[in-house]
Amino acid sequence: MSNVKLFWLDEEQFEELLPDETLISSEQKVLIEKNLSVLFGMKFVVRDYPMDQDVIDTLALDSNGSPVILMFRKDPLHSPVNRGLNAMAWLQGHLSEIRLLVMHHLGEKETLKLNLNQARLICLSDHFNDTEISTASLTSVDIELLNCRFHDENLLAVNRLNLPRLLQRLNPYQPRIDELLSQATPRQKQLYQEFKNLLTGLGDDLRVLVKENEIIWARLRNLATVDFSGATLNIRLNLPSEAVFLEEMAEDFMVNQADKANEGGVLLLQLNSSEQLLQSAYLIIRAYRIN
User: Fold this and answer.
1) Spatial CA neighbour of 118 closest among 146, 143, 148
2) Tens of pLDDT along 113-168?
3) How far apart are CA 271 and CA 259, in angstroms?
């Protein structure tokens, strides 16, 4: 169970904000669905979609075109992990149905981006027991467990659990990543390895995937998009414009792309050297923490 504690500072006095003791209500679930873009960088598709003997609580589409099943703990007796794994198995036999749902609710443009082979499962609950954590750790499904607790009426705490590595998962994108790296220059390869070392040193909760010719690093949301076009290592950081000060983008290799924020990040780093990567490290760490 999450041990995160929140406190409200009123003048010079701290007051602990106690979490709700109840499960996520249907009203709170709808609130989460309405804010999927802010919370997880996703677009809502449909709720309570019927499948064999159950429903998909929420179906969404992430910014990389992957369908995402979100399952909530509805009562103490039914595990969102078990329900979610059943939903993922059902989805594999109903891919054309998922495509039609995306077409109907989000339109042709989003349907063309759809990546049905890389579905994700997110389970949300106020707690997860040891059996659920072990089950999630042993499955080959792309699964994430999120502790979600409402505090009073206007505060939601979300904590992603780091699952123990009980099963060595193979990244399905690794062959494509290797192919892109084989086409990079020696300098680009070296800088990418240094960038990778920086991120993996921050935590083991990262996802790495490929979209066309770009390598995407993500946590709950995409945090960085990397490509090897030209002679530089190009890294777009997914940072909100208010999280970057103009004076922080004073270096020649930093490009302000606030007008292209919806394409993967407001700040483009065009790196030529390890020194430039080191100068940018605090911004990369900021993108990791925010996303």
Assistant:
1) 143
2) 999 988 999 999 988 999 999 999 888 888 999 998 888 777 888 888 888 766 56
3) 21
Q: What is the Cα gyration radius of the chain?
A: 20
What domains does the chain contain, in order, with CATH numbers?
6-160 (3.40.1350.10), 174-290 (3.90.1150)
152 conformational bin, left if phi > 0, alpha if psi -120 to 50, beta if neither? left
* Token pair belonging to 119: 């579905």
- pTM of the entire structure? 0.84
Contact in structure between 68 and 56 (CB atoms under 8 Å): no
Distance, CA of 29 to chain centre: 19
Q: By the 8 A CB rule, do 206 and 162 touch? A: no
From the list 126, 19, 116, 9, the residue with the least C-alpha distance to 61 is 116
Q: How far is CA 229 from CA 24, 90, 181, 182, 233, in A?
A: 45, 40, 11, 13, 8
Q: Which amino acid type is present at position 175?
A: P
Q: What gap in Å lies between CA 9 and CA 7, rounded to an integer?
A: 6
